[in-house]
């Protein structure tokens, strides 16, 4: 079946018994930054918070009644599962969903609430699929493919139908997330039939790029491993039919990393106050990367917000990585002389740049190694800063793209320092505003050596700093006067068991 044959399938798809026509919302903040009109197709606003409901219901609605009476079974990383569960509930048939054990609980609970039976198996969609096939053989239930089925593809294709109806004016490109390829195949088949001048660009994570590799190889490949951050597209092998269609309708596939997806989640929040899951923001991350690469201006670019089923606790990681993904934070390792005043001199070199993180623990009598985060506006600014520091005799290394540094080292800087004598450890809070950290260090400039320093900007009204200072007993009275004059809230942490066990 060739792509044009999908036009009738999409036009006659049964999706609106349960699905809604979602909005095509402008993103003015992002548009002003990248110089193009950016529109977001809000599939996160579906009843199950994902477009997957379209294909699932179209498939179930077109099954013979006898097949529905036997019940349906599917394998899914979560979003298709919720679509099948809701569809089965509406049509009154039994549904069994095999999901990877790594599926976020919010998706598992969403499936259970709609009356479906959940079976957890394996670490990826492919593992779950193999188990679902086995259950089909054992039970005789009808398998509902998450992407490699003409009725499912046609259901997803209604997203493209709505876009062209909602925006009949010129469109430069539509960016589509790609996992198994159902949405890209259906949307692409429809749009290319009616508006072939519109570019259809698939977007995959760098560590789950089965479609890109398959198209390059000329046949479907099987990935040995897939990244699980964007669990909604964590597919080891794309579908046979979706591969055939995507080869014909996709103009290209672009890949993005975790930081870029986190930055895109933040972009959506800033423009809509909505929070997408990683795979839901995947196409927007690709849109931004493509626009920067191509240097396009004043064009209309559309991204699919494909899902919003994310566990709340994952937001900690998203917030941590978003600034790096947007090139708004640089992570540096800087070596400075181990002597009073070095911290302050270093901060003065940073100029007006805001410090987002500052980690240090005394270890060497001659040199201090600092782990520091700095607000930047471009990657070039980070390179220029590193060059400036090295020029001033402070050895600096850019760790912004270093995964070990971002995931682990930033949380591990520290340790015991038995060589440090007369150490006092205090935790301070001070109003968080531009220049606050430098002001804090300036007020501390009394000649006492800093042996420990930890600061991280948490976006709150108050900055929180843990500081170790070497204060001889003879200076204790002067130190107490310093605390009184400082005017900041503080806590003496010398008796804290965490300090005694890990830092003292």
Description:
By secondary structure, the chain is an alpha/beta fold. It has 3 domains: 3-50 and 150-322, 3-Layer(aba) Sandwich (Rossmann fold), CATH 3.40.50; 53-143, 3-Layer(aba) Sandwich (Rossmann fold), CATH 3.40.50.1100; 327-502, Biosynthetic Threonine Deaminase, domain 3. Helix content is 41%, strand content 21%. It has an 8-stranded antiparallel β-sheet, sandwiched between helices. Helix 9 runs parallel beside helix 11 (240-249) and helix 12 (258-272) packs across helix 13. The chain is elongated and about 90 Å long.
Class of the largest domain in CATH? Alpha Beta
Give me the CATH fold name of the largest domain. Answer: Rossmann fold
Counted by DSSP, the helix tally is 20
Strand content: 15-25%
Low confidence ranges: none
Report the count of strand segments.
Answer: 18
CATH 2nd-level architecture of the largest domain: 3-Layer(aba) Sandwich
* Cα-to-Cα separation, first versus last residue: 71 Å
Rounded to the nearest angstrom, the radius of gyration is: 27 Å
**What structural class is derived from the secondary structure elements?**
alpha/beta
Shape: elongated
Q: Report the biggest beta sheet as strand number plus sense, adding barrel if it closes.
A: 8 strands, antiparallel
| Strand line-up of the largest beta sheet | 14-11-13-12-16-17-15-18
> How much helix, percentage-wise, in residues?
40-55%
Overall pLDDT score: 87
Number of domains: 3
